[in-house]
Amino acid sequence: MKQDPSKGTALNRAKPYQLVLFPLNNGATNVYYVLILSYVATFGSAVLGIAMVFASFMVTGMRIFDAITDPIIGAVMDKTNGKFGKFRPFMVIGSLVMAASVIGLYVLTPFVPADMMWLRYTLFVLLYAIWVLGYTCQTSVTRAGQAVLTNDPKQRPLFTIFNTIGSLAGMGAMQFVGPILAGDSVFGDYNRTWFAVMAPIGIAVSVALTILAIIGIWEKDQPKYFGIAGDKQENLKISQYVQIIKANKPLQRLMIAGGGCKLALSIATNVTVLIMLYSCMMGNYDGLYLPMMVLGYVFAVPFFLMTVRTAQKKGQKASLTRYVCLALVCYVGVLVLLILWKQGDPNFNFSIMGENGLSINLYTILFVLFFGVGYGAYYATADMPIPMVADCSDYETYRSGKFIPGIMGTMFSLVDKLVSSLSATVVGIAVTFIGLDVLPTKATPYVPGMNIVVIVLFCLVPMCAWGLTLWAMKGYELDGKRVAEIQAVNAARKTAIEQGMSLQEAMERYQTVDQVPEQLRN
Questions:
Q1: Nearest to 413 by CA among 135, 175, 215
Q2: Angle, to 10 degrees, between the axis of helix 285-314 and the axis of helix 316-340?
Q3: What percent of the chain has pLDDT over 70?
């Protein structure tokens, strides 16, 4: 029977409640993803009177600033090892900083007189930047903390499911409450009162989820789970981090794969793209958008279960590759259907409800099947690279003896955030090619060439991104068998160090799985 790794065994398993609670950290930060990234430009323009162009530019600029600060916070995290652990301080600090900055931004800044616009601009930028630092602190833990939570190949894939649930718990609460409070009979359309009320509601939800996440990682946030050397590990210099990243080929390939999956999801689900598809082309945004999103989530549920099952049997690489391939094949069907689309032709148009009730043709049936299966497959794989970061962290411990989950997670996060900030820019540039000066809305009529833009953004860009993901995974060495070997070698080294051997001696003594005692092999 395998026991705790501190007693000399290969597997460090998490308890069920830990697997469920720790991913809620992602939900805690996604509260602010909605509260800030979705509404801060509107707040700056409508409430503070800041120029809309400036407010919109700040959203993109701060997203890039957020990505840049990730590796810095990651490096600091790797050097942290106090009485409160390595990860919990960043969760608490991040939560407090975000709460204080949001109160300052949404509640206090509007009290600045309108004739002191210079101060409004200054506070807007300053408080937004402070919020970004808090956001970076807490989001960095989501990826880095997995390295200590579990290294069981049957448990790590479960993080994808609980991560999605946690994300929906945070985002869903804000997306549900926000429109209700914005009703004419409540506070009105995203005015000063709405922001003053939503801020404390969002903070309360985020703090509650943070507390649960801290409980989830509490027992694991201690030195005996920090790699093979525990609290004996030496701190690294910044220059050493650069060399480590260069040498860690699996992380490099995972960053490409994760960026590909994120780009596919963020562009294909961009609201502007969906407006052009369901409203401008198909002519019924209200009747198509929500049903198709619900359909996509319904299809995604079984794929989440299948991806986890595949990952548990064959490894996370095999699972990601298999279902990205399926998404790619299905979107070939979606691509063909969009090429066949003809404006005004009922036989080559997407329709669910007509004037006389249900109106479904062969085109609609095929679109639902191809889109549903394809969307379900790629939505289930979009966050799959996140738990794979922990495998890369284990690989780095195996390769160099260093336990640096902070820098591993934040380097991956840097690419993730840069890609997501790029998606809006790609969509905006694409729209200009058909002569539009502003992003289309439901009231925008169809413009010649719009179908080409939709084909490119809704199909071809995701398909190219998935192709890039598959290429990256082809040379990714951390399949299920390799990960098990690495964990066994790390366990043997850890045991040897606990028995008095130096790190260097342990690294030299155990290099391949055949040198590892039988009881430590998974």
A1: 135
A2: 150
A3: 92
CA dist., res. 99 & res. 95, Å (int): 6
The C-alpha atoms of residue 320 and residue 407 are separated, in whole angstroms, by 23
Side chain identity at residue 360, one-letter code: I
Does 111 share its domain with 225?
Answer: yes
Q: What is the CATH number of the domain that holds 458?
A: 1.20.1250.20
Task: Record the pTM.
Answer: 0.80
Distances (CA, A) of 199 to 169, 193, 478, 521: 17, 10, 43, 50
CA 198 to CA 206: how far, in whole Å? 12
Is the domain of 306 the same as that of 347? Answer: yes
Model pLDDT, residue 350 = 77
Q: Is residue 507 part of a domain?
A: yes
pLDDT score at 6: 40
- Same structural domain, 471 and 502: no
**Alpha carbons 362 and 333: distance in angstroms, whole number:** 13
Q: Say if 241 falls within a structural domain.
A: no
Q: Are residues 306 and 325 in the same domain?
A: yes
Q: Per-residue pLDDT tens for 405-460?
A: 888 888 877 877 777 767 767 887 888 888 877 778 777 888 889 999 999 999 99
Same domain, 289 and 181: no
Do 281 and 191 have their domain in common?
Answer: no
Domain of residue 261, residue span: 252-476
The answer as to whether 46 is a domain residue is yes
Map tokens 């050493």 to a residue.
Answer: 240
**Unique residue bearing structure tokens 């040498």:** 247
Query: Are residues 312 and 392 both part of a single domain?
Result: yes
Residue 244 domain-assigned (yes or no): no
Q: Which DSSP symbol is given to 489? A: H
Please calculate the CA angle 157-67-226 and round it to the nearest 5 degrees.
Answer: 50
The answer to whether 401 and 228 are in contact (CB under 8 A) is yes
Q: Compute the average pLDDT of residues 348-377.
A: 80
CB burial of residue 123 (10 Å; 0-12, 13-18, 19+): middle
Per the structure, the count of domains in the chain is 3
User: How confident is the prediction for the chain on average, in pLDDT?
Assistant: 84
Lowest-confidence range among 9-18, 127-136, 209-218, 348-357? Answer: 348-357
Cβ atoms of 31 and 198 within 8 Å: the answer is: no
Domain limit, last residue, from 184, 200, 235: 235
Q: Quote the CA–CA distance of 504 and 235 in Å, as a whole number.
A: 15
Q: Please tell me whether residues 271 and 304 are part of one structural domain.
A: yes
Is 423:270 a contact under the CB 8 Å cutoff? yes
Q: What phi-psi label fits residue 36: left (phi over 0), alpha (psi between -120 and 50 degrees) or beta?
A: alpha
Tokens of 149: 């939570």
Contacts of 39 (CB under 8 A, 6+ apart): 178, 190, 195, 198
Does pLDDT of 8 surpass 50?
A: no
Instruction: Please report how many Cα atoms fall inside a 13 Å half-sphere around the Cα of residue 81, on the Cβ side.
Output: 19
In order of 96, 98, 192, 199, the CA distances from 106 in angstroms are 15, 12, 8, 7
